[in-house]
TrEMBL record:
It comes from the Bacteria. This is DUF5683 domain-containing protein. It comes from Leptospira ryugenii.
Amino acid sequence: MCIFATNLGAEAYHVIKWAPIESAFGYTIEIKDANGKTIFENAKEPSVRIKLSKGKYLYRVAVLNKFKKIEKWSGWNELEIRPVALPIVTSATSEVQSEGNVDKITFNGENIYEGTKAFVIQDGKKIPAEIQTSRDGKVSVVSINQEQVDRKKNYKVTLENPNFDPIEVPIVGKQTATWEDPRAETHVSETAKPVDDLKKNIWPMFWRQALLPGWGHYYIGEKKTAYAYMSIFGLFAFNTLREYREYRLDYIDFKSNQENWQAIRALDPSGNQIPFFTTSIIEEIALSKLEERENKVRQSINLMGIVYLGSLLHILYTGYSHQSKDLNQSNNFQMGFRYEEPNLHIRSQDKNQMRVDLRYTFFY
């Protein structure tokens, strides 16, 4: 048995399960580490939650009778606790196998365990899928509910382990089509995704990005990019509000002082007490500061606009890149031989000689 731990250093809690025994009134599990240290735990159910650090252990389980006495021990079993690693897919089936209303994809891999999550990505949507892995963690099967996906369109399957980015499971020959000419040799090619589907797939992520920069990337699972856009746009928006608030305060002060200057001029129209140019200079200085504050507000708004437009262009590029990649991968070059009618000619020139002509057309 192998258990994967997300905490690489200190001890962490892990769950060990075993097959239940109908006549058991409880269980006792004995765990022994590499140094010979032994741990005993009692459990009513066929599982136990225990704190262990990474390493190799031996364990055995005892069945308790109704008097809570040990009835019988199992044999020793190996137990290894490893740190979580990035999932690795080494192979995939050539096509999706259907069983009822479920599509199953079988593949070989490593670092796939109970905590590994599988998702189906189609039209920008992230749909959870069921995954089952063999005891040794080498063979896994992803089950996809046909009611949750459009089987006429391409999709991809991803695997995720905690603290790691998702990886894609390569699926060969998900959708196939054959040549219509029954006389020709059978050829199989990938079905290309129509261009209209590309627009439909991009639209859900685009309108989300238009409402909030970063939401579109979050929708397709690119969370790091999404958080970056949300943080940058949020900082610029906060700075814009702050600059606008300062501008409004300066504007109110300017209008108030302007009324005072006009009152002073009205009391001394000839400028005998206070020269006329004095109030004009003060007013020009205050107006200059107000314009400077207004420019800062405009600069903040421009920065917000740059981030906003950049996020829209980025989501369009991301969407078309992903879809174009699927489209390019689906267009396989095919070639072969096709015979034409009449395909066989036999001509006899004399009784001692015969000529046979075979005619084929080479196509690609």
